[in-house]
Amino acid sequence: MNISRNLFLLPRLSTLLCSKTFSSSAWAWSGHNKWSKIKHKKSANDQARSKQVGKISQGITMTVRTEGSNPDMNIRLATLLEQARKNSIPKSVIETAMKRGSGGGGADGNLMQALDYEAMHPSGVGFIVETITDNRTRAAANIKHVLKKYGASLSNARFLFTKKGKIEVNQPVDRPSMELGNVLDDAIEAGAEDIVQRPKELTDEEDEGQYVILTEPTSLNEVAQYFRSQKYEIKDSRMIYVPVPDTAIDLQTNEQAKDQMQNLIDELYDIDDVMYIHTSAANSHYLPLNN
């Protein structure tokens, strides 16, 4: 995703129904998806294909490690397995990824680990870089090298974020006339915190849906299960880090800082171990910070 892309205002929803509070608290999108970056930067060639297979298999390893290997209970895993099927990823690659997530080794027999690295940029923007690696020394060295190039360094930054569950869905194919109000009703029933409708022109990635749903971290799987039971297509389901509104850094009027930040993000994504990057830059993923 390109953080310099034009901003837009999205419909935001809040209501009170049957004593259930549906909150529309302020938040800004901060999670940059690795495959989203690659799709924008590279054409459909052998290198992109290899990156895609790697991204999906790494995601399978990570979610098996954190949420278990049963796709009926792990919605994130079920979503990735469906992506693997659509992209004709060999069964052997999927089985290897799941084995690594269950405690098997990487290419050199080393244990696969899911590690987060926190960093600060001189602009005041904080980073959380999610990785999955079989060599933590290599991963740390590569990340430090890129950060140093842009004047950033490893530092405590988690206080700049709030952890949330995020689900991307498309409406059920057998309900083409569904309206926004119907989706809101389902979100309330599911116990979701917030919902945003994504404009069609910006729903162009493998893991992006018509609606973005936020949940409390402990409710992610339960809410995703509800939407799946209602026949929604689950495009993505995972934890993200949302900037705290009071400390989010607005880079929209500073083109130089914006470009530098984008270059930093791009180079971090070129590291094979890096899966997701979250920044505390306001509107870094095109969703408004304030209502």
Automatic annotation (TrEMBL):
Compartment annotation: Mitochondrion
Signal peptide location: 1-28
UniProt key word Transport: no
Domain TACO1/YebC-like N-terminal: 33-104
One cellular component (GO) term of this entry: mitochondrion
Record PANTHER family: TRANSLATIONAL ACTIVATOR OF CYTOCHROME C OXIDASE 1
Name recorded for this polypeptide: DNA binding protein
Species whose genome carries this gene: Schizosaccharomyces cryophilus (strain OY26 / ATCC MYA-4695 / CBS 11777 / NBRC 106824 / NRRL Y48691)
